[in-house]
Amino acid sequence: MLAEDPLRRAVTDLVSPEVVQEIRSENQALLEAAQNIQAGLETGRFDEAARNAAKLGEVMRKHTLLVEGVLDVLCRDDVSTSGKLP
């Protein structure tokens, strides 16, 4: 049996599996929204592309705040950028 990586264990202790799953879920939503925008633009469905762009912005804001929170936990000694987000 391989020894567990101490860094991975430390990260797991700080960031719950639920948070990791949420980040992965949001990554998928971001990718899908971007692909839908591209498809709408390529097929001339600009109304659909605009709706997907709005969704992309919403998901991106939520995702950025979540990731910034995780980074704040992982990098407590570093200067935080969370306060600089709109």
**Radius of gyration of CA atoms, rounded to a whole number:** 17 Å
Taking all residues together, what is the mean pLDDT? 82
Sheet of most strands: none
Distance between the termini: 47 Å
The stretches of 5 or more residues where confidence is low (pLDDT under 50) are none
Any idea what the shape is?
elongated
Share in helix: over 70%
Estimated structural class: mainly alpha
Describe the protein:
By secondary structure, the protein is mostly helical. The protein is 74% helix and 0% strand. It has three helices and no strands. It has helices at 6-14, 17-42, 46-74. Helix 2 packs antiparallel against helix 3. The chain starts with 5 loop residues before the first helix and ends in a 12-residue tail after the last helix. The relative contact order is 0.12.
Short description:
The chain has 86 residues and is mainly α. Helix content is 74%, strand content 0%.
List the helices and strands and how they pair.
Elements: H1 6-14, H2 17-42, H3 46-74
Helix pairs in contact: 2-3
